[in-house]
Write a structure and sequence with these properties.
This protein has one helix and 13 strands. The protein is mainly beta and 196 residues long. It has a single domain, classed as Jelly Rolls, CATH 2.60.120.180.
C-alpha cells in the first residue's frame, strides 16, 4: 500500500495506520486529495494485474466544498487517463463531474453507476510526463451513495472497456477523498486495495 497527498491550495493532512486505514483533514485547501492503495510502474494493463478489489468504510464530518469524491482514484499511461469510481460525496449524489459525455450505466456491487468521460487540462497530467497538459478522465458515479462496502475495481475497468473507454498501462488505484474546498475530515477505518 502506498499513500499520496496533493493540494493546489494551503493543503491538509493525511494520517495512515499499520492496518489498511487512514484519516484526512483539510481547511479551505482548494482542490485537496488524500488516498492510499496500490501503486504500479505502468508496465501492465489492468487485466494483467489480476482482480483488483477494494474494501472501504468511511465516516465524514464537516464540509467538502464545491465538489467532493469518495471512492477509487487512479491513473493509467499511454493513453493518459485519470479515473474515478465515486461511491460517496459530501453533497447529494449523483456527483456532477462537470462537462461530460455520458457513456451509459452499469450495475456493480449492488448499485447502478453512470459512466462518463471528460476532457481536462492543467498540470495534473504530469503523472504521464512533464509535458502532458491535457488528458481524459473516466468516471463511474454511483446513483445511490454508500459509506462502506466492496468496490470491484476490475469490473469497472471492464465496463469502461465495453463502453469504448480505453485504459493504458496501470499506474495506480487508490481509495480516495477529494474535496474542492471547505473544512472537514474523513476517517477510513477500512481502506484496503488488493490485486490477486
Amino acid at each position: 500500500m502506498s499513500w499520496t497527498i496533493w493540494s493546489n491550495g494551503s493543503g491538509g493532512s493525511i494520517t495512515t495506520f499499520d492496518v489498511p486505514a487512514f484519516k484526512a483533514t483539510w481547511a479551505n485547501s482548494g482542490d485537496f486529495l488524500a488516498r492510499i492503495g496500490l501503486q504500479w510502474n505502468s508496465t501492465k494493463t489492468y487485466d494483467q494485474l489480476g482482480t483488483v478489489t477494494a474494501q472501504f468504510s468511511s465516516k465524514k464530518s464537516g464540509d467538502g466544498g464545491g465538489y467532493s469524491y469518495i471512492g477509487i482514484y487512479g491513473w493509467s499511461q499511454n493513453p493518459c487517463v485519470e479515473f474515478y469510481i465515486v461511491d460517496d460525496s459530501y453533497k447529494t449524489m449523483p456527483v456532477n463531474p462537470g462537462s461530460t459525455t455520458n457513456k451509459g450505466m452499469v450495475d456493480i456491487d449492488g448499485g447502478t453507476y453512470i459512466l462518463y468521460t471528460r476532457n481536462t487540462t492543467g498540470t495534473g497530467g504530469s503523472k504521464c510526463g512533464s509535458s502532458v497538459t491535457s488528458w481524459v478522465q473516466f468516471y463511474s458515479v454511483r446513483k445511490t451513495a454508500r459509506s462502506c462496502g466492496q468496490i470491484s475495481i476490475s469490473q469497472h475497468f471492464a465496463a469502461w472497456a465495453a463502453a469504448g473507454m480505453t485504459l493504458g498501462k496501470m499506474d495506480q488505484a487508490q481509495i480516495l477523498v477529494e474535496v474542492g474546498g471547505g473544512t472537514g475530515s474523513i476517517d477510513f477505518p477500512v481502506a484496503n486495495v488488493t490485486a490477486q
